[in-house]
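Exam revision sheet. Question 4 asks you to relate a sequence to its structure. Input first:
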Amino acid sequence: MRRFTYKAKDSKTGKTIKGVIQAENERAAGKLLLDQGYVPDTVEEEDTGGLLGKLSSKVKAKDRIVFTRQFATLIGAGLPLSNALRTLVDQTESKPMRRVIEDIMSQVEAGKTLMEACSKHPEVFNKVYLSLIQAGEASGTLDLALKRLADQQEKDDNMISKIRGAMIYPGIVLGVIIAVVVFMLVMVVPQVEKLYLDMGQELPGATVILVGVEKFILERWYVLVASLILIVWLFLQFKKTETGIRWMAVLKLNVPIFKKLMLRLYNARFARTMQMLLSTGVSLLDSMRMAGEATNNVVYEEQITLAMEKVQAGKPLSEALKDKKYMMPLVPQMSSIGEESGKIDEMLGKAAQVYEDELDEQIAAISTMIEPILMVVMALLIGFIVLAVLLPIYSLVNSVG
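Answer key, structure tokens:
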């Protein structure tokens, strides 16, 4: 989808508005504006500056969180919606986020609801976000809905950041392993081979293997690079297919070492989203559907869909969630307590907190566990290379002696 900047008039109010719209082409953009009740004046494709521009135009999660938090504060202080948005346009440093806010502001000033304006940017605001905005507008508690959204987004972003952070050190160690191996193959092994050739000796088996790898890297490096690029490209394309999405979802829920971590992540995300939606007045079934989508795992989402069918048939939430393969016990247990006390949202929030705390501990434990595994791998690889280098030298010394 391409982005187009536009200038148009609202057919009802006659107001001139400016903004950004996404469409396949200029004609499609104009049609979308007409469908929304606007008469286009100018529609021009936005200059993104190529691939780099497209990457830089993406709204970051932290920018969305800051926007939501500041928006909640301004609305809570009593500022009218359009004034709050105008203030945010002036305060926002992120250009991509500022463009989104400007478009939302123009839509709101043209008579659209905040939810309708935000829905024009699905790449920034997901269904959960839009539902809470809608519930907040309907109940007159928009500031509270925005505050809950900011809290939820921060918790989710923190969890993902911790998981990524735990992988940084192992990634560095792996990089060092690869660098050391390549250095020894390219710089040391050729010297050993030359020494043997000069003396007319036959290389040991381990050294022959390393020489073969070294020659392939030096002489066929382009084949290696092209193969890696092709493999990565094919994998990325596969991930976009329906089969690939499902395969990745199953893998995340079953891969050794990370299985329990991912289960806690999805259960925490589901429970926390349910708490937020239910506390804002969203119906139970809608909350379940959106919380399932928020987990971003189709296999886990399918289990929530099965649970929804039981709820529709008259079963309580706790019973509907019970005995699901990827549903951890605390969620249905706390749901049962919440059903008895009339505080399901609060109890689900406590379940989410427990899993979030356990997630923090497990992330630290996994990071600690991966380090010695990588060290062993590095020791074995370098040990093999050192053996393949020293063994022929030792043999030469013995033959000369």
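Marking note for examiners. Confidence is low (pLDDT under 50) at residues 49-56.
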